[in-house]
Amino acid sequence: MIPVRFEIITIFPEYFIQFKSIGTIGRAIENGLIQINTHNPRDYSKDKHRSVDDYPYGGGPGMVMKPEPVLECLDSLGEPAPFRILLSPQGELWNQNLALHLSQKTERFALICGRYEGFDERIRIAGADLDISIGDYVLSGGEAAACVVIETMSRHISGVVGDSESVTSDSLGGNLLKHPQYTRPPEYRGLRVPEILLSGDHRKIQKWREEMSIENTKRKRPDLFTCKDDLKGDKKSVCRGSEDPDEF
Ligand code: SAM
């Protein structure tokens, strides 16, 4: 099996040392299911200080990432050309649907991490197939966003999560949140596990879980629940994220 490759363009490659070595991601790398490589734009800088940023034309606060080091770093990735994701608070909002669809799209991705005040616009125009935001807030750099994107996509790559049912039953699959879960002991601090889960009646347990999943979603994320209803009709556009894998 060919591993899915994530090529991260970052001026802080050390950020990913721990990320690559622990948990689900660490195991997926060890088992040859994914690869995570880092590439530093500083190695493509032409000046003796290896600088990758410069003052913004027109003035204003902070520094902007220069186009040459980032675009030349991207060029160095060679073939097959990766699907290039620019991490930006201005991008399309990341969600479970998008993670699933992108994970099925190709076997090589580039993730471009910004720093400072962000990118020279030509990096986006010439170097990105899709801009992704992981949420409506501003990080100091794209590295944390790259970890989020890689981790969520990897869960959809066959074999990365041992029991594939735990991925299909995750919250947000089918736009529903998961039902509440319990483990031993049956009672703790006066709080009892629902009797039905101790009954051994798997048909009833399944029914309870489905009902709780719907109730959970209605209570915590009514926006998702509306979206699920709309999917049955012809109002797909109200749902967050793309339902169409060929859109990008
Ligand atoms: N001045 C930029 C703006 O207003 O759009 C924000 C720059 S931010 C301080 C630096 C970098 O962090 C960005 O270029 C991007 O790569 C990353 N970043 C910040 N927030 C992000 C988010 N919500 N999603 C993805 N990447 C983000």
Features:
two-stranded antiparallel ribbon; five-stranded parallel sheet; binds S-adenosylmethionine; alpha/beta; Trp Operon Repressor, Chain A; single chain; 248 residues; 2 domains
Q: What can you tell me about this protein's structure?
A:
It is built from 10 helices and 9 strands. The chain has 248 residues and is α/β, with parallel strands linked by helices. The strands form 3 sheets. It has a 5-stranded parallel beta sheet with strand order 2-1-6-5-7, sandwiched between helices. Strands 3-4 form a two-stranded antiparallel ribbon. Helix 4 (96-103) crosses helix 6 (143-154) and helix 9 (202-220) crosses helix 10. Residues 228-245 have low confidence and may be disordered. S-adenosylmethionine binds next to strand 5. Residues 87-90, 113-115, 117-119, 133-135, 137-142, 145 line the site of S-adenosylmethionine (SAM).
What is the β-strand count?
A: 9
What is the number of helical segments per DSSP (H or I, 4+ residues)? 10
| Heteromolecules bound | S-adenosylmethionine
Tell me the name of the CATH class of the largest domain: Alpha Beta
**Low-confidence blocks of residues:** 228-245
Which outline best applies?
elongated
Number of domains: 2
Q: What's the pLDDT, averaged over the residues?
A: 91
Q: How do the strands line up in the largest sheet?
A: 2-1-6-5-7
CATH topology of the largest domain: Alpha/beta knot
Could you spell the SSE succession in H and E letters?
Answer: EHHEEEHEHEHEHHEEHHH
- Known CATH architecture of the largest domain: 3-Layer(aba) Sandwich
The proportion of residues forming helix, as a percent range, comes to: 25-40%
| Gap between N and C termini | 25 Å
The CATH superfamily of the largest domain is identified as SPOUT methyltransferase, trefoil knot domain
Q: What is the CA-atom radius of gyration, in angstroms?
A: 22 Å
How would a textbook summarize the main sheet?
5 strands, parallel
Strand content: 15-25%
Q: Strand pairing plus helix content: what structural class?
A: alpha/beta
